[in-house]
Amino acid sequence: MSSEAATVQTAEAAPEEEAVPRRGLGASLPAADARAKTEGTFPYAADLWAEGLLWAAVLRSPHPHARIKSIDTTHAREMPGVRAVVTHEDVPGASVLGRGTADRPVFASEVVRHHGEPLAAVAADHPDTARMAAAAVIVEYEVLDPVTDPEQAFEAEPLHPDGNLIRHIPLRHGDADAVGEVVVEGLYRIGRQDPAPIGAEAGLAVPRPDGGVELYLASTDPHGDRDTAAAAFGLQQDQVKIVVTGVPGATADREDQSFQLPLGLLALKTGCPVKLAATREESFLGHTHRHPTLLRYRHHADAEGKLVKVEAQILLDAGAYAGTSSDALAAAVAFACGPYVVPNAFIEGWAVRTNNPPSGHVRGEGAMQVCAAYEAQMDKLAKKLGLDPAEVRLRNVMATGDVLPTGQTVTCPAPVAELLEAVRDFPLPPLPKDTPEDEWLLPGGPEGAGEPGAVRRGVGYGLGMVHMLGAEGADEVSTATVRVQNGVATVLCAAVETGQGFSTLARQIVQETLGVDEVHVVPVDTDQPPAGAGCRGRHTWVSGGAVERAAKMVRTQLLQPLAHKFGMSTELLQITDGKITSYDGVLSTTVTEAMDGKELWATAQCRPHPTEPLDDAGQGDAFVGISFCAIRAVVDVDIELGSVRVVELAVAQDVGRVLNPAQLAARIEAGVTQGLGAALTENLRTPRGLIRHPDLTGYALPTALDAPDIRIVKLVEERDVVAPFGAKAVSAVPVVTSPAAIASAVRAATGRPVNRLPIRPQAAVVTGN
């Protein structure tokens, strides 16, 4: 990966010698936990320990669909060292729970609906004993035929008491009879991407004297986890406490109730601390994945390439349980036409249950799948019209004030044309030399089997969009407290640091507002007011907004006595580099002197403007804000072997405002790389519902050798007036856009349709050459 990948490159970049802020907003402040993580001292959940610790193991179903005839735990309970065995009969509270839709049992009781579904859990003195005892639980199954094709789910027998159809959204916008002079069609399939967290999924449950329990988890939504756990345990919410341990990064929800809830049940039953550190196989079996999706599209355009109508059918495979599939479907349907002006749109979207592994929240859910499809359609349209792929896109891009197919007006900045022009005009990388010493540049890597003469270069484009925060009436709110004493500021907010940089941002906000250098962010637990889940950029917006409001309230408390003393308003005073000065220079003092040993604090909330659910025609103001991205991909394809090497990805993105340049560049780079995996390597194979090769050998993540040069060629800083600081979320939209751009480049290199992600080698082979 080139050194440029770690820097923010923009056309307006300042000269290197220009002074760079060392603190506050706009500075590349390093992450507070960076040193601990690099030195190996960061306290991850897998490192936790407690006196009298027991170890847990979970028994999971080997079948994707079966009727449970009996569960015999006798042998497991009698094994030396086993302290407890729990099944569905030991769940004292709600036995069916879930994120989004409550339809997932804590333990399967009558029917197994997916491979890896938990049936029992064991606590023992040693982890090996726990695993052996779990294996000793005897379950008698009547194996049933699994329903693994989502198209068959419509006609199949109900897999769940709630039926197989989770949600149907029929979007109707404009004139159904409108037609274009040019029509292109396509059928597309998006595979199952796993979030594949590098850090072990682990947790520790500790019983409390009051009959409650504390759960130490790498949670990204501690209050949501607390509520779920309390309902399952039959306890009051204040009897369950979630303490967030070190989260080793999260590109999806890290809330796997299939081991969290058994942990708590075992701790309550044994009266001892219980720990579980999931193996990689257990992670693949337990957590949710990106929705596999089937998409059918028909685009109508006039002779000039202007879109007239888009028709689409979108089918999301939710797996065995609904989870957050309703939210993913809403995003897929709403953004099915992409960041283009489409006067007439008719989209049918469905999310259905199958016996495949459950799907859930993964960065850019819904939007990523449709982006790959509508961008393929734009390539087909360009080819049929004889236009450059970038040009046909430019003729249709939306701007601020345009209307989504949902009827919602785009009121936020939407500089889509500017983004596309930036990547289109960025210089292309040089062609590789046809010399032995440069053979490592060939697709396939060092000592690859390819021949230079079989390599074709392709250039492709992707335009993507995602919504920020929750949607369709979700109540987004966060609370923060800022306290200052003796020159030290403390921030208390239950926003979990998942790698998105919230802890660093909170420090920068307080530094900027109060002029205090030393800022500490308190570790998160559920004794604090809720801040919501750490996804869709919500903590930058909502939690960052709450911190800013609290800091400004403290600022007012600090400045009011001085303003009163000198007969001026607080607006005439400013804080810079730890000094308070007035507009006329009469007043000049330090923040420390003004504090005079006092303790100042304030608590504030941030709640964005409300949204509304989509109606029966898919219409409604469902989203708070939208962010956009353009990516140009350059690939080399060996057309004999079908191997693909991504040479460069040029990125332009509207970010509202750059709050931390280095951190922003890292987030964009990470998002692009995750999209690279979805485009080329990551596909969790589930033949007949069985997860094949649940490990990081069978599931191929992109490595540093696979990562291309990532050129951040432009960041458009047009502030969103309704967002705190004017900033937009940056992580998800590169994930959404890069797979589409890579597929577009492979199409350009090969002339093949490339209608499936990840791209299979056979899809890039050109015969007859």
Automatic annotation (TrEMBL):
It comes from the Bacteria. Residues 39-145 form the Aldehyde oxidase/xanthine dehydrogenase a/b hammerhead domain. Pfam families: Ald_Xan_dh_C, MoCoBD_1, MoCoBD_2. Residues 1-24 are annotated as: Disordered. Residues 1-13 have a biased composition (Low complexity). This is Molybdopterin-dependent oxidoreductase.
